[in-house]
Amino acid sequence: RALLSVCPGDTSVLAGLYGPAEAKISKELPDRAALEVLLRPKVGLPGVLERSREQLLRQTCEAVLLGVLHPRTAISLVLQVLSDAGSLLSCCLNAACMALLDAGLPLAALFCGVTCALQPDGTILLDPTARQEQEARAVLTFAIASRERKVLMATTKGSCSVEEMQQCLAAAQSAASTIFQFYRDSVRRRYSKC
């Protein structure tokens, strides 16, 4: 299955999810599904940054995926960057969640990605553009679960105080409600056509 995720600010990611399918013996896990996440840049080959993001995405997906219901299987999630105008990691997180949801895989909760840019004057921008990210003092991306707005993953580039990080987290948790409503509306539209 393939699914296109377009985030505000013209960043778009195409997500394809394959599985659960028979796993190769070397990758087979006896107690749960083995999840593989591949992030493909718009041009060129994946580098260190993509590998780092793949690990963050995989850990986030594994935190909610009920893989114990599909032991000894493999699930592959392929994310292809179509355009990057900023907030790429959060767009990838949103595409990953929508792909898992669309494939009907059992999840303990939904999750979404929210990126915050902390400007030099202390202002917090949600869903920053690439230029706003470059000008920011710090860029923080959070993966927020739909249950109790729990933080599944957080990553920071730049420097900020603990208080500023807490302010960014509060803003991200608040913004997550809008994204989860978007998920509900998207699923409702998709399945009301059947």
TrEMBL record:
Superkingdom of this protein's organism: Eukaryota
Gene Ontology terms: cellular component: cytoplasmic exosome (RNase complex); nuclear exosome (RNase complex); nucleolus
Record text on subunit structure and interactions: Homodimer. Component of the RNA exosome core complex (Exo-9), composed of EXOSC1, EXOSC2, EXOSC3, EXOSC4, EXOSC5, EXOSC6, EXOSC7, EXOSC8 and EXOSC9; within the complex interacts with EXOSC3, EXOSC8, and EXOSC9. The catalytically inactive RNA exosome core complex (Exo-9) associates with the catalytic subunit EXOSC10/RRP6. Exo-9 may associate with DIS3 to form the nucleolar exosome complex, or DIS3L to form the cytoplasmic exosome complex.
Record-stated family: Belongs to the RNase PH family.
Location relative to the cell: Cytoplasm; Nucleus, Nucleolus
Keywords: Cytoplasm, DNA-binding, Exosome, Nucleus, Phosphoprotein, rRNA processing
Organism: Loxia curvirostra (Red crossbill)
Domain Exoribonuclease phosphorolytic residue range list: 9-106, 110-174
Record-given protein name: Exosome complex component RRP46
Lineage: Eukaryota, Metazoa, Chordata, Craniata, Vertebrata
One of the GO BP terms on file: rRNA catabolic process
GO molecular function: DNA binding; RNA binding
Entry annotated with the keyword Methyltransferase: no
